[in-house]
Amino acid sequence: MECHVYYEGDDDPEKCTARRLEKFDEAILYRNMDQVPYGVVLNPHAERALSPADAEAGLGTLVALDCSWESAEEAAFRMNGVHRALPFLVAANPVNYGRPFQLTTVEALAGACCIFGDRDRAEALLEPFRWGETFLTLNEEPLRRYADCVDSSEVVAVQEEYLADETEEGADHDPESNRDGQETPSG
User: Fold this and answer.
1) Which of 3, 81, 100, 174 is found 20 to 30 A from 36 (Cα to Cα)?
2) Is 17 annotated among the ligand-binding residues?
3) CB 75 within 8 A of CB 112
4) Are 122 and 111 in contact (CB under 8 A)?
5) Where on this chain does S-adenosyl-L-methionine bind (predicted)?
């Protein structure tokens, strides 16, 4: 699986996972959007979830945008290709550890490789990062389940289970509610 990244350069160069991927010859970076090849574009604004069925649509090419989350607006993803959103995954990077959907470029590419059934490629991408293996460990079950799906609708169904679990866990830790969902009186 070839990995290509449109690099906007608005992140701290010392923490930029795309630059490290380039350094280790794991991805090709582009500073001109017109040069980015056609492929499966990992786009959080896409209307369809990434699924194993998309592996062939991208002709073996994954494309990511490397930018800060503050500038990751829909217009920034104007690249040619099949646009797909990654399903629920949890970040392992030190900046966003444990936050759902707040992935670095390398986490997004590795997650996509796992969904496409290429865990070896995901491991190779993550190897230069001390927290890389943690990403695969944190997301082991969802990545396995997404890879077992046939299409986007199945991926969305699995994702909905994880989002429901997250919502329930959040309610369990909410001091304003008790176990049966009733509000606890304040005061």
Assistant:
1) 100
2) yes
3) no
4) yes
5) 17, 65, 86, 105
Check whether 137 is labelled as a binding-site residue: no
Report how far residue 63's alpha carbon sits from residue 79's, in angstroms, rounded to the nearest whole number.
9
The torsion defined by the Cα of 139, 140, 142 and 146, in degrees rounded to 10, comes to 120
Residue 76 above 70 pLDDT? no
Can you tell me whether residue 120 is helix, strand or coil?
helix
Among 138, 137, 66, CA closest to 106? 66
Residue among 27, 46, 55, 177 at smallest CA distance from 101: 46
Q: Report which residue type is found at 108.
A: A
pTM (global) more than 0.90: no
Report pLDDT for 78.
79
Is 184 marked as binding a ligand? no
Tell me: pLDDT of 57 over 80: no
pLDDT at residue 17 tops 70: yes
Give me the mean pLDDT over the 128-144 stretch: 97
Number of H helices, E strands in the chain: 6, 5
Place of tokens 């990995």: 3
What pLDDT is stored for residue 19 in this prediction? Answer: 92
61 assigned binding-site residue: no
